[in-house]
Design brief:
alpha/beta, five-stranded parallel β-sheet, five-stranded mixed β-sheet, 9% strand
Length: 481
């Protein structure tokens, strides 16, 4: 039996179940018939007409609201206003704690107004979906189509599929993880005389209308099929490193993997230089694999796991972007960079501003990084004229060098000053040299092809003949451009 209803200002929140009045609990029926004022979130529910025929509703707010959030705020305000006069019943479709934004708003604000909120159990669409399909509720995830967060390796029931536009957007999101022919199940009007259950390929999901009594079931992907998301790749790499996995992978160490990380990074850079999106897609995957491989080695050594890697970079990004995740402001990329450097300086105590430039960087890139850091504290010429004059001085010193060691030292100074000039002009020295190397490779290849077409051996040609072929190759390159 229902406990005696007191006169205290209380909001009794009940659920009308997924559709059919038979699924409404006895306790809710008694509350609806108790004589207390009843407010329906919406009258458009199969149970409303039979169980609360004279109740007020909030459908006018839906007709006049600019957005769902405006509507929900208006509904919550109406409930609170009615509750100020005494205890009342607020009835919502389904279960009060399943996708009920108005209930969340009431729980946030009622206490501040001295109102008590009591929520009563109800049958939800999840109960009926699980019963209809024989699903284990213990492993089932419930997802909102309008704010999808889904684990593809667990079965999912998705609600809020109330119109075709929403379903089309949902389908596109699901196709990022699931195959186009993945069979999903649409459950309509569960528990009513109009109940319908049908299977459909994911790619055809939005080929029919949807309504507020529809639910979608998406079965779990096998981990080896979950290949479009990081979770699937993590599973594959973990399997390779697990007992009974790949002997080669299980023997790797951070040191043995080091050259592969370097090689894959340079191959990704080459794909960027070539403007080849397909190759870049592949090479970035290879770089990502190296990260996961090192994480597996760390887990095997019990030093760190992938979660540590992910958490570290996520927290760093949040911490160093206070203009996005906090109260700070940044109106330009330069200001963001300055804030980043200040935050990094506060996080890491270093003896020198040059600390942190990896010694394993290629010499040209390292030189630019070192000089860039020195410039931040004002240790540099004010404009490019200074390093240009210094370059002339270093070339003269190189010309006067009398030994191999002196020439080596002076040549290094020349390159160092050239890097400073590049920095003043906003040129990436490493990229510039890579471009020059690529240009030479292409032109020299054309020289080789010209010589071969004329049955010439480059080793037999004098410098004048080689220069002529080089000029011809340059002319052909200009013509092609």
């Amino acid at each position: 039996m229902l406990e005696p209803v007191t006169a205290e200002p209380t909001i009794h929140i009940v659920g009308l179940g997924p559709g059919d009045p038979r699924h409404v609990t006895l306790e809710t029926r008694e509350l609806l018939a108790s004589g207390l004022p009843v407010l329906l979130r919406t009258r458009h529910h199969p149970s409303a007409g039979e169980l609360a025929p004279g109740a007020a509703d909030c459908d006018d707010l839906y007709r006049g609201g600019k957005s769902f959030d405006d509507v929900y705020q208006g509904v919550a305000a109406r409930v609170l206003a009615l509750a100020e006069s005494g205890p009342m019943v607020y009835a919502v479709p389904g279960h009060p704690l399943f996708a009920e934004r108005t209930v969340a708003l009431l729980l946030e604000t009622a206490k501040a107004r001295g109102l008590t909120v009591k929520i009563y159990p109800a049958v939800s669409f999840v109960d009926l979906a699980a019963s209809a399909l024989g699903l284990d509720l213990g492993n089932l995830q419930v997802c909102d189509a309008t704010a999808l967060r889904i684990d593809a390796e667990r079965p999912a029931v998705i609600h809020q599929v109330f119109d075709r536009d929403t379903v089309t957007a949902l389908k596109l999101q699901l196709l990022e993880a699931y195959p186009a022919d993945w069979e999903v199940t649409v459950l309509s009007a569960l528990g009513s005389v109009n109940e319908a259950i049908r299977a459909v390929a994911l790619s055809e999901l939005d080929h029919r209308p949807f309504g507020y009594l529809d639910t979608l079931y998406v079965p779990a992907l096998d981990p080896l099929e979950d290949v479009r998301r990081l979770d699937g790749l993590v599973h594959v790499v973990a399997r390779l490193h697990a007992p009974g996995g790949c002997p080669w992978d299980r023997e790797q160490t951070h040191e043995s993997l080091r050259p592969h990380l370097l090689e894959e990074s340079y191959e990704a850079l080459e794909a960027i230089d070539n403007g080849d999106p397909a190759s870049l897609t592949e090479e970035l995957g290879d770089v990502l694999l190296q990260v996961l491989m090192h994480a597996e080695v760390g887990a095997r050594n019990e030093t760190f796991v992938l979660g540590d890697v992910v958490e570290h970079i996520a927290r760093k990004l949040i911490r160093r972007h206070p203009h996005v995740f906090g109260d700070a402001t940044a109106s330009s990329a330069e200001q963001v960079y300055q804030n980043w450097e200040q935050l990094k300086k506060a996080e890491k105590t270093r003896e020198s501003i040059l600390d942190g430039v990896p010694k394993t960087l290629p010499a040209l890139a390292a030189s630019q990084a070192i000089q860039g850091r020195a410039r931040r504290v004002g240790f540099d010429w004010p404009d490019v004229d200074g390093p240009l004059e210094k370059l002339r001085e270093e070339i003269d010193e190189f010309a006067r060098a009398a030994s191999d060691s002196e020439r080596l030292d002076e040549f290094g100074d020349i390159v160092f000053v050239l890097v400073n000039i590049a920095d003043h002009l906003g040129i990436d020295a490493e990229q510039a040299l890579r471009g020059a190397n690529a240009k030479f490779r292409a032109r020299f290849g054309q020289v080789e092809r010209l010589a071969a077409a004329r049955d010439l051996d480059l080793r037999d040609l004098d410098l004048a003949a080689l220069d002529a072929l080089w000029d011809e190759a340059k002319a052909a390159e200009r013509a092609s451009l």
